[in-house]
Structure of Transcriptional repressor:
Amino acid sequence: MKAQYQTRQRSELLDFLKEHTGVHFTAAEIQKRLKDTGTSIGTATIYRQLEKLIDEGSVLKYVNGPGTSACFEYLPPEKQEVPEEEFHCKCARCGRLLHIECKELVEIGNHLLEHHHFLMDPRRTVFYGLCDDCQKKTNM
């Protein structure tokens, strides 16, 4: 892989993502958070750098559905080489995206492969429903 030229914007974006490992952000949220700390990076630059980081394997991209902004998450080096067995649950009401590590869901993936010859990608698997907070609001 060709070495990346390290611009100030790329370094600041990568530093921000590393500081928030495990958190999902849209490009607009990243831009706002950086601006709040005194760093100004244009939207096109953020998207361009995120795409490069995705290609390098250090950022994951989640598309939450039609009409919604994609989310991005930094992936530390120790997790870049090993396939994650982490799934995601997205609240259909508030849009919250939750990380789920669950051996039972891994078994579903094994079943799909063994019985249906389908290899599921846990990093890109999203279950839709209602988060705990939205369930509580519904029951009030």
User: Anything to note?
Assistant: The mean pLDDT is 84. The chain has six helices and five strands. The longest strand covers residues 86-91.
